[in-house]
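Ticket reopened. Same input as before:
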Amino acid sequence: MNIAEKIPTKEALIESAAELFVEKGYAAVSTREIADRAGVNLGSIQYHFGSKANLFVETVTSMMRRRHELKNYFVQCQDISRKEDAAFELCVFVRSLLFDLCNPEGLDVCRLMHREIHGAPAQDPEMFEALVSSVVNDFISPRDSRLRSLVNILVPDADPFKVNIYIQAIIGQCSFYVTHRPFIERLRDVSVNSREYLEEVADTLLDFTMRGLGLEQALVSQAIAKSKEVKR
Amino acid sequence: MNIAEKIPTKEALIESAAELFVEKGYAAVSTREIADRAGVNLGSIQYHFGSKANLFVETVTSMMRRRHELKNYFVQCQDISRKEDAAFELCVFVRSLLFDLCNPEGLDVCRLMHREIHGAPAQDPEMFEALVSSVVNDFISPRDSRLRSLVNILVPDADPFKVNIYIQAIIGQCSFYVTHRPFIERLRDVSVNSREYLEEVADTLLDFTMRGLGLEQALVSQAIAKSKEVKR
DNA sequence: GTCTATAAGCAGATAGAC
DNA sequence: GTCTATCTGCTTATAGAC
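Engineering reply: fixed in the latest deploy. New output:
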């Protein structure tokens, strides 16, 4: 006998809003649609959120917080000073980021953000502000710090500007598979969701990246091999 | 005395549609807005294009064709076989791609596409089909071929799958500056439009990329230096 | 080919009963 | 807090005069 517990209206709204905004984009979704899918009344949106724009911002920040706790992005938090450890941690980081971004149930948030963020400053400066700080604070910034500390160990004499570009190169290579997914699938006839494809991408990407940072091949190969054994 | 030639209605519509779709995204723009900005009657949209969706597709493909003729992406078309030449051409290619993508008047097309393409398959499969083939055929595919031929010369023994990933890494690093522009500017407090910033990005990116491909540092440095002298 | 006028419907938001 | 009913304005698309 299942006791079907009713999901609170506010949560139900955020949930259905998340699905619909990801699927269609902000402007293309109506509040009626959201309320219907949530199985609640249209008026509750005004009651709980005040406006469609507020519902959107609350939905996005909730998605952002729920899914992104840097979990699995590294194996150990202790101080790392040896290059071998840093190289290994970098591999774990890149693998996690790539899989996290491409995970179908995982990070639609990114796709959603990318879509909305470009038009937002002109249309709704307040929403833009809220979105940008949510992404930067809750997602990008912690990953940026983590990558910076690893790169600084691996390339101790690199100047700070170059380190920034290296970090952006690493993130850019990974997020390419989210932002360009429809084009990659058409051009290469592959499924970006497929685990096998992503594993191979990660291996090659890591090799490319670590050589790009100027690391010797032995260190690179060893770190990659070791990182494949980490359970995710 | 200027003779103010009237722009044909159809062209005027495509032009104002391009501006507005880039700025706000498909769903957030109304046909009235487009007609008003073009200084023509609302009815002409139905007359010339039949529907808003058709206007959108025609607008995008027109943008795509007009701006992207692989111009400046390479210096010479002749057969290249020496590694030095290929390395040099790769540098020119990456610089051009980066500047082309970030050019404010240049490639809003990319931003526009990225925004619309993710929701399109669910909402309007026909439009999705038209958009994807336009981008892949007119933009991605030629650049993919060009990069492949260069990478094949630079890394003659690489297996084809890895070459694909290398190509995607290069494009991903460049397009990161379009897709993540608002976040980069917030996080780093820089202007992605600034020429100086992009020049430095290009230098570092090229160094990183060519080392990632396994090229020796002397070849890399020489190719980068030479490519800086190419006028754009 | 371009105009005006208008149709038919949906948008977000509100008021007030319960 | 949740419901129904409704307001106001804007949406795309059409019909028909010129």
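Chain B touches chain A through 57 residues (CB under 8 Å). Chain B has two domains: 3-50, 70-227. Please confirm and we'll close it.
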